[in-house]
Amino acid sequence: MPTxxxxxxPVPAFGLxxxxxxxxxxxxxxxxxxxxxxxxxxTAQIYGNxxxxxxxxxxxxxxxxxxxxxxxxxxDNLAADRLAASLAESLDRLRTSHVDLAxxxxxxxxxxxxxxxxxxxxxxxxxxxxxxRIGVSNFTVALLQKAIAAVGAGxxxxxxxxxxxxxxxxxxxxxxxxxxxxxxxxxxxxxxxMLKDPVIQGIAQECSATPAQxxxxxxxxxxxxxxxxxTQRAHLESNLRASQCVLRPEQMQRIAALDRGxxxxxxxxxxxxxx
Length: 275
What we know:
This protein has 275 residues and is of the alpha/beta class. Helices cover 39% and strands 16% of the residues. It is built from 10 helices and 10 strands. The protein has an 8-stranded parallel barrel with strand order 3-4-5-6-7-8-9-10, surrounded by 6 helices. The protein has a two-stranded antiparallel sheet with strand order 1-2.
């Protein structure tokens, strides 16, 4: 499995996302993924599945030291007097003493909790041993600048953002990269839209790969960590093989040309002023 070299330690470049997976569906997905060889699991407080994820990990027999586990702090828990306590509750649900990466899931709506406050609290949670690395999610350049001012770029391992061929978020990616902050891509298949694109389908034929493998390979070859999800074992297994799909430079360029600012995740009242 390829890795992303962060300022603190390597991050597996391909992981399992658990968004919208509940109860037994979450248990089954994580169980299948771990059995197939996934070692990066991504969850969040708001998903309501941390306990299910923790149950599946505990039953898997995979050593904790071989896993990379990410969770995200919800906006209700961003205040300095709440953040670390909420993360400790996540650890209880996940049945672990720490997560490998703790992210701010979304910036505080309306700036109710200042960036400096919640980033300082997140850094303190890391100092307490609750998380090995910290980072952010759904942050714009302006928000990244505030986060850097609060804790320093070297403390921020990752910015997890919507990123797929139709929304390549180059301004945010380039700024983060200039600061040594890596990018994790979520919604990489774009709710399946990418799989229907004729350019993607053409490249898949050229590579004897599936459209999903082509898109996931594009993201990893672009230097992103990738979070992908499925409830079907066959899809999980197929997606995992994306790391073996190597795209030629001209194929990468054809995918790069698909960018059209096609944002799919833009929740009212939660989303920042996007770049």
